[in-house]
Amino acid sequence: MEPLGASTFFLVICISCLLFFAVCKKVSGNGKLPPGPVPLPIIGNALQLKTKNLSKTLQKVSEKYGPVFTLYFGSERVVALYGYETVKEALIDRADEFAARGSLPMADKINKGLGVIFSNGERWKQLRRFTLTTLRNFGMGKKSIEERIQEEAQSLLEKFRETQKTPFDPTFLLSCATSNVICSVIFGKRYDYDDKKFLALMSLMNDNFQTMSSAWGQLYTLFPSLMDALPGPHHRIVKNNDTAKEFVSEEVEKHQASLDPSSPQDFIDCFLVRMEQEKHNSGSEFSIENLVMTTIDLFIAGTETTSTTLRYGILLLLKHPEIQGKVQEEIDHVIGQSRSPCMVDRSQMPYTDAVIHEIQRFIALIPISVPHAVTQDTPFRQYVIPKGTTIYPILSSVLHDSREFPNPEQFDPGHFLDKNGAFKKSDFFMPFSAGKSSLISALQPFNIIHIQDSLQQFVSPRDLRMYPGNETR
Predict the structure, then answer these.
(1) Cβ–Cβ contacts within 10 Å for residue 197, how many?
(2) Tell me, which GO biological process terms does this entry list (predicted)?
(3) What's the CA gap between 194 and 22, in Å, rounded?
């Protein structure tokens, strides 16, 4: 048995060495692939990336290898873009070349290339164009959406008041409120905060984001085939998404039964009308499958980013009472106590506007952008990025750039104010990515308006005093 054991051990060593040298050869890429830390066979750079402080780890990698570097997530080669100039050059200046959606194993498994966020090619072009046009026609990013936000803010504020100043977790209330605004556009209705199916859906989506952010989700990104064979909480993500599909499919069936093609009432109606118009077009991407997945994409994009930003905003205002007081003073001066905030107030409230931008900059909610990809060998800087390579823009490197934001690790609304106290825009403000493949970025005006109206309305500093202990902070 000993000779067999020795032979097996020797064979494993040889195979590992061959894999190692094969990977090293791929890294060199004839000297054209961006440099990066040497990967290990099978696991790539997994051991070198400290996921608990990934931003700092990537900063150190960039300091050693430059603003464009290669990493291996398991066996998959990816190229990371670090810093404002690099991200801007790829996603804005050369948007067409970097517009494709990159590989994200769990999303690929769930979406199967459907929908508007994780699709590519002609499907993505058709669905993105239709989605943006339809949402804007229903008021997203415009003044016509503010009444829905104002009404929802009032409903949420009432729920806050019902707590009678006792401790409570606002997570689901914030999710329901922000989700109801997008629901009013895509489903044509809002849901009661006590609706069991709606609350269950919120819980499932929240669970998915937590699981994807956990070690289980990160391991799935590195080793999808292996993780598919292993038990663990990562399998809930698929089950949760199947439940979301059932929820949306039921709504689609209701819309099909009540549809008036001459008067579409919401996004689903418009999609169904377009389906009928293109039913004889073999190249059309307007199908029930794409409708369901696009609706889920919008549902998630219109809920999680805004509600999580609001939750962080509450915490930051609690931690910085002096900033809280200045915001309250501006709200009292411009809006007063007798009416709801509206979009025209924004231009008169530079400090509040700066605080909201600083919240998004400081928390860097999406530190690494949803992956992009190049569809052909692409010369970039002094390198050549091979066809099909996944691209990861590091957004935290832009949002925390000390050249644009002095003391970037500090929460300071002054980052968005000029010397006269007027609001100051920044090209470095990329909280949701940038470029053509970012639907969330394309709808950024809606997110800003939603967050601004919401913070002013139901988490103004005065209302924050409902949280016990805030008076002493």
Answers:
(1) 12
(2) epoxygenase P450 pathway; xenobiotic metabolic process
(3) 57
Cα separations (Å) of 122 from 30, 127, 209, 454? 33, 9, 29, 36
**Pick from 317, 388, 325, 394: nearest CA to 358:** 317
* Res. 342: pLDDT tops 80: yes
Whole-angstrom Cα distance, residue 118 to residue 100? 9
Tell me the range of 118-122, 311-315, 409-413 where mean pLDDT is highest: 409-413
d(CA 200, CA 240): 10
Where does the pLDDT of residue 437 fall: very low under 50, low under 70, confident under 90, or very high at 90 and above?
low
pLDDT of residue 279: 92
pTM (predicted TM-score): 0.84
